[in-house]
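Fold it.
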Amino acid sequence: MTAINQYFLHAEMCENWNYDRLGDVIEKRSITEMRHAEKLIERILFLEGKPIVINLNKIHIGDEVPKMHEYDHQAEEESIRAYNEAIRLAAEVGDNNTKTLLESFLKDEEEHIDWIEAQQDQINQIGIQNYLAQQIYEK
């Protein structure tokens, strides 16, 4: 739930700065995280559990694009660690359906972190001004 909010706000900030290309990608990532939350809540309810959605981690909002990427990278690292641990636990208790669901989430998170790292590499290689110029397009 934390990632949804962080990514949504970062996407809106990018769009406000007219970095529409970047904002669109981050917004899609937020939607992916919403789908993860929905499927996870459905699974918890199916297992007769009670989803707790009010205990959020701290949201880290970047005031410039490189900081956004840094904070989003940290969020993805935390998610990857958490999913790996949850996958281990699901396997340990023999809950293969939950394990499979979490593995699909893990795959998405690894793709997200790979994309963020590519953006950080581009900034380092071509400079922030050139990078930002690529993020502008008219809708």
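The mean pLDDT is 95.
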